Amino acid sequence: MFKSFYGAQKMLDLQRQKLQRLMSREGLMSRLIKIAIASITMITLWAMPTSAFGIEGLTLVEQRVIAIFVFATLMWIFNAIPAWTTSTFVVVLLLFTTSDSSLWFFRDGIPAEQLGHLTSYKSLMACFADPIIMLFIGGFIIAIAATKTGLDVKLAKVMLKPFGTQSKYVLLGFITVTAVFSMFLSNTATAAMMLTFLAPVLKALPADGKGKIGLALAIPVAANIGGMGTPIGTPPNAIALKYMSEIGIEIGFGQWMLFMIPFTLLLLFLAWVMLLKMFPFKAKEINLNIEGELKKDWRSWVVYITFICTVLLWVLDKATGVNANVVAMLPVGVCAIIGVLTKRDLEEISWSVLWMVAGGFALGVGLQETGLAQTLINAIPFGSWPAVVMVVGSGLICYAMANFISHTATASLLVPILAVVGASAAVSANLAPLGGVTTLLVGVAIGSSLGMVLPISTPPNAIAAATGMIEQKDMIKTGIIMGVVGLVLGYGMLIVLGSTGFFG
Q1: Would you kindly state where each structural domain of the chain is located, as residue ranges?
Q2: Among 30, 202, 400, 470, which residue's beta carbon has the most beta carbons within 10 A?
Q3: Helix (H) or strand (E) holding 115
Q4: Long-range contacts from 255-261, C-beta under 8 angstroms, 24+ separation
Q5: Distance of alpha carbon 16 from alpha carbon 162, whole angstroms
Q6: Taking 90 as the threshold, does the pLDDT of residue 295 lie above it?
């Protein structure tokens, strides 16, 4: 989807270097040790008697889900193998050991009360074609079409033009444009594309100036923050909405933007001020030179109209009654029919991201259909915990995890548990004054997106780090400041909105 971009090439080079390190003797040994730790932990949990967990009513199937869940967590943290590989293996494990189509020796000859409730294999496999997956595919197709028609370049030119040539406003321009693109396109693709436009600007700046660092950091910061603005901006948003929908809470595309856009705008402004203070420019003027033109053939015009219609339908989903997941299929169908979307383009879709999301969904299915989530709710007195502790505590845990493992993996692990916990009668009543489970799950989405302390925290960070302009200490400092500020403002916003009945 974005292999032609300068930044994407840097990312691919970084990935190749990482693979080479992994394949070296030391790298291979490290990887094998990590896999062994995760596997031994899973087997140990699997083999323990159910009574050892201290959870009343725990069944064998629920125990297996716990073991698989811990295995997935460790593998995502260790990053010994690609995250999507872990997700895929998790689905396979669930299918063969916990489903109604599992291997016979995992279910035959075991008393029903001891075995517990098996998951539906159809439910697990349906995770790969979940409506949320279709939503992301639609977003990927829009990104492909925008790149092929020159729409992305044109939009960047038009949007950057009002910011002029003063250094501080050029920085603001890159922050704004990156954030807007990341609301509708993949954060990774957005970061790669914007670094392409930024490359000649960086070359034109003085070698000893700090402004270069600020500009390079602006891209991942804006991409991560901007992605929070829409349901399709980043996977954690969509994951949170999916599980809210499953428990009967509907937040439309437009409603999400209504409270998240002001929040992201405030964070972006604060990011701009912070970057100017931390990395001041030596040069007062910067001349932008963005190459590329808007195509004007009939196919391109169809793409432009489809793009506008898709965005409008997403924003006005409550008014039109058309679900955002359904709207996502519009650009897929149109671009395929007119020939803009080709077989080669389909190969460019980030399927690894989709498979990783699907693995997280499968864990959620396992938690719910086996009854493990309810068993944990009964065992842990969530209802007695102060609502603020549950809401803020879950966000802090999420933020901490998101800095070390993928944002998507973090949300995939935490959201299913919190959705079931929050929907239970005791906890729901406890959370009601703060907006209920909606506040809880939206907070997780915010906490996930704010994890940007390290190059490994998120692909936009890795792409920016690959430019060689940024020292890790600068990224850490920037990420911590934005994370803390974002969490304080984000949870302040959610508590106020929840307390005033905004979420219904």
Answers
A1: 131-348
A2: 470
A3: helix 112-115
A4: 255/318, 256/230, 256/231, 257/229, 257/230, 257/315, 259/493, 259/497, 259/502, 260/228, 260/229, 260/230, 261/229
A5: 39
A6: no
Tell me if 197 sits within 8 A of 289, measured CB to CB: no
Distance, in Å, from the CA atom of 17 to the CA atom of 21, rounded to the nearest integer, reads 6
Say which residue the tokens 């960047």 belong to. Answer: 156
φ, ψ for residue 235 (rounded to 5)?
-55, -40
Beta strands in 138-183 (DSSP E): none
Q: What would the pLDDT profile of 458-474 be if each residue is shown by its tens digit?
A: 778 777 776 677 787 88
Q: Dump the DSSP string for 297-342.
A: SHHHHHHHHHHHHHHHHHHTHHHH---HHHHTHHHHHHHHHHTSS-
Residue keyed to tokens 């966000």: 395
Other Cβ atoms within 10 Å of 306 Cβ, number:
21
Q: What is the pTM of this model?
A: 0.67
The rounded Cα 18 to chain-centroid distance in angstroms is 22
Distance CA 323, CA 231 (A): 12
Whole-number Å distance between alpha carbons of 416 and 94: 16
Task: Give the pLDDT score at 7.
Answer: 45
CB 268 within 8 A of CB 441: no
In the chain, the largest separation of any two C-alpha atoms, in whole Å, equals 77
Q: Per-residue pLDDT for 364 more than 90?
A: no
Count CB atoms within 10 A of the CB of residue 248: 8
Beta bridge mates, 166: 285
* CA quadruple 454, 459, 464, 465: dihedral sign: positive
Structure tokens at 149: 């028609």
Cα(264)–Cα(48) distance, rounded to whole angstroms? 47
Range of weakest confidence among 19-28, 171-180, 220-229, 353-362: 19-28
Residue 456: φ, ψ to 5°: -80, -10
For the chain, the first-to-last Cα distance in angstroms comes to 39
Residue carrying structure tokens 């428990």: 247
C-alpha distances out from residue 472 to 84, 378, 459, Å: 26, 44, 15
The pLDDT score that the predictor gives to residue 20 is: 62
Structure tokens at 88: 């895929």
Is residue 285 helix, strand or coil?
A: strand
DSSP string covering 1-26: --TTSHHHHHHHHHHHHHHHHHHSHH
pLDDT tops 90 at residue 97: yes
